[in-house]
Amino acid sequence: MPLTFDKKPEKAIALRAYLFSHSGKLLETADVENNQVAFHTHFNSIRDVKILIAPADEANQRIQSAADLARYKPYEPVFSITETGDLHILPIPYRYWCWWIPKFCRVTGTVKKEFDISGFNQPKVICDARVHICEVDRLWWIIARIPDHVIDKVRLQLISQQVVPHRIGPDPGPEELRIAQAQGPAPAHGFTTAKSRSTAMRALPSHLHSELAGASINEVRNILVKNFTVLHPIFCYWPWWWPWFYTCTELAVVTTDANGRFDVNLTFWDCATDTIDL
Q1: Which sequence spans correspond to the domains of the chain?
Q2: What residues contact 207, with CB distance under 8 A and at least 6 apart?
């Protein structure tokens, strides 16, 4: 099967092709050589299999499922079978292969911990500590992958929820304390901070309420991305919503030295920026 690009990359990109069954089972892996890839697995119809193409990397030599390729942003081509039995696909679009150009990021840091020494907190470095470095997806990429019915559920819950509790976290500032105190006397247990008051509320901004009411699925996605800082306190109280966000991919595990420091070079793929979210 020949593989070509709709624009020519400045440097050659090492590619690997994966053949999966319709149920998602990995059938075969093949490296792309001289813009050609060949599979030796027999199948009855092109409806029985699917092909994913991704940049070749040591970490994706031993994948088990298509989900393991998510961080590489693989391309699933539409292919056909020629009269000679060869597979044929159109050139790989630029919007896919631009993500496959490897970039490098150097990650350094120091691991410290506060210790109580004679009544004084003092930061001390931690040596021989294992540090797990993980990549998290950018917000717009996460929102784009969430199914339409889930996005619509978010929209309906937001427009039907007039007020939401204050998010869990540190005590609020003076302005929020003043608002909480104006809502009435403290409860019988005597606590006076707004953190302990279940009556502290945060209203959904009216302009977002009106925008969400008549928004399409794609418009809702854009609203969530642009206003995530405002909506995040609300989402903290939706446990069913959390699994869509709190996932990450481990890139490396390093050990701190005698001074609590670590230093490592990472490879990543990102078309839009030269940095990586860790």
Answers
A1: 15-100, 102-136+248-269, 170-201
A2: none
d(CA 138, CA 276) in angstroms, rounded, equals 9
Q: Coil, strand, or helix at residue 189?
A: coil
Is the full-model pTM beyond 0.70? no
- For residue 178, CA distances in Å to 134, 172, 181, 192, 193 come to 40, 10, 5, 11, 10
95-128: pLDDT as tens digits: 888 878 777 888 999 999 988 888 888 888 999 9
| 38-70: burial string, b at 16+ Cβ within 10 Å, e else | ebeeeeeeeeebbbbbbbbeeebeebeebebbe
Whether residue 67 contacts residue 74, with contact meaning beta carbons closer than 8 Å, is answered with: no
Confidence (pLDDT) at 239: 84
